[in-house]
Amino acid sequence: MINVNDFKTGLTVEVDGDIFTVLDFQHVKPGKGAAFVRSKLKNLRNGNTVERTFRAGETIGRAQIENRGVSYLYASGDDHTFMDNETYDQFTLSSEQLEWELNFLKENMNVNIVSYNGEILGINLPTSVELKVTETEPGIKGNTATGATKNAKLETGLNVQVPLFINQDDVLLIDTRDGKYMSRA
């Protein structure tokens, strides 16, 4: 059990039978009435974000999340197969479970699987990945004053805004948290 006064960003808790990670929290001490903790929680099972208020001093369950290294092997229809790096066990996840992550997954890529009591909740990607540009318009010299961008399609199907000097077949560093261009690799 954990006291809500000890909330930290990234802490994993169990509330009403669901698993949440703490995105944000604020301790509030009103002039009149009891203190409370206002928090923003992300449900790890379905990805929904909820705002929840707890009384100061209230205790809730702490969820022990397990992270294991796995390799992404291949896609077969809507199923995506992974292999545990230690035991070599294979398992599949659906496209629904990996909606955002599919923008960055390449075959033989190493990621971390997130599970709770044997239930697979999803995967954790590295903060940045290298992806190759498959199509983009050529940049024309002199048609910009500052900071102009163009659209580029990457090998995973993700479309990102990139500077005009990026060409087809360039390898880019992409931030997996927001899907934005960081630099050339």
UniProtKB/TrEMBL annotation:
It comes from Paenibacillus farraposensis. Residues 67-121 form the Translation elongation factor P/YeiP central domain. Pathway: Protein biosynthesis; polypeptide chain elongation. It comes from the Bacteria. InterPro entries: Elong-fact-P_C, NA-bd_OB-fold, Rib_uL2_dom2, Transl_elong_fac_P/YeiP, Transl_elong_KOW-like, Transl_elong_P/YeiP_cen, Transl_elong_P/YeiP_CS, Transl_elongation_fac_P. Involved in peptide bond synthesis. Stimulates efficient translation and peptide-bond synthesis on native or reconstituted 70S ribosomes in vitro. Probably functions indirectly by altering the affinity of the ribosome for aminoacyl-tRNA, thus increasing their reactivity as acceptors for peptidyl transferase. Signal peptide: none annotated. Residues 129-184 form the Elongation factor P C-terminal domain. This is Elongation factor P. The keyword Methyltransferase does not apply. Transmembrane segments: none annotated. Belongs to the elongation factor P family. PANTHER family: ELONGATION FACTOR P, ELONGATION FACTOR P (EF-P) FAMILY PROTEIN. Keywords: Cytoplasm, Elongation factor, Protein biosynthesis. It is found in: Cytoplasm. NCBIfam families: efp (TIGR00038), PRK00529.1 (NF001810). CDD domains: S1_EF-P_repeat_1, S1_EF-P_repeat_2. One of its GO terms (molecular function) is translation elongation factor activity. Its main location: cytoplasm. The keyword Transit peptide does not apply.
